[in-house]
Design goal:
alpha+beta; globular
Length: 229
């Protein structure tokens, strides 16, 4: 069995509903602006409570768009020999989850974006069926999920809205999207540092066996808060 890394086993800090909603708003805005390519992976990790290794070990074959489900069957974690693919942490970790409609929509959008990357890569594309692949189709390093989350958290700092000089990251944001992103940045406070598998404090069961706070789910998932029966 691979040894789970420090990042993988880090204590979880819970977001309250307002903080989770702010993370979702900014993450989506950054994804729309092309500044957070791994937002679908973060959204899945934070929203569904998946471990980092579980998210980074997913393949497209694990997603059933017709049934609206996701199977967790393997994990990619770091040990002394590097990154290894193995079984989930426990027997119960091998599971099937029902996905809200908003998650399914985001995964479909991610699939379309990956198809464009595949076409651009041409013959160098790696045929691995990796859900959250690199721009060449290979496995993404698990640490990149942490980096993506830190980047999103950095955008929750309200002072970021004023850092729009000629050499700032704002030059990478399409002009028509800048007002909306700036409004989102200014709409709240800096979020605390969290891990990629942070979720709001769970209180109520889902049909799939998870537990979650309905108020939080409704803020994040919208009208599709309840998983499919």
């Amino acid at each position: 069995m691979p040894k789970i890394s420090v990042n993988e086993a880090a204590p979880i800090k819970a977001l309250n509903p307002d903080q989770a909603a702010r993370l979702h708003t900014l993450g989506t805005a950054l994804y729309d602006a092309g500044l957070c390519r791994l937002w679908p992976a973060l959204f899945l990790a934070v929203g569904m409570g998946l471990r980092r290794g579980e998210v980074m070990g997913l393949k497209w074959a694990d997603v059933d768009f017709e049934r609206g489900t996701l199977r967790v069957r393997q994990t990619r974690v770091m040990d002394v020999e590097g990154i290894v693919t193995g079984n989930p942490k426990t027997t119960n970790s091998r599971r099937e989850l029902y996905l809200p409609g908003s998650v399914m929509a985001l995964l479909k959008r991610h699939r379309a974006a990956q198809l464009v990357e595949r076409q651009l890569a041409g013959n160098v594309w790696q045929e691995g069926d990796v859900l959250f692949a690199t721009t060449l189709g290979d496995w993404t390093h698990p640490d990149n999920l942490n980096r993506a989350l830190r980047a999103v958290l950095g955008w929750t700092e309200p002072t970021r809205a004023g850092q729009d000089g000629g050499n700032s990251i704002w030059t990478r944001v399409p002009r028509e999207l800048r007002p909306g992103l700036k409004a989102a940045v200014l709409a709240g406070e800096r979020l605390p540092d969290i891990s990629p598998m942070t979720c709001a404090t769970p209180t109520q069961p889902w049909p799939c066996g998870r537990v979650c706070r309905w108020k939080w789910c409704q803020r994040i998932w919208g009208t599709a808060a309840q998983p499919s029966p």
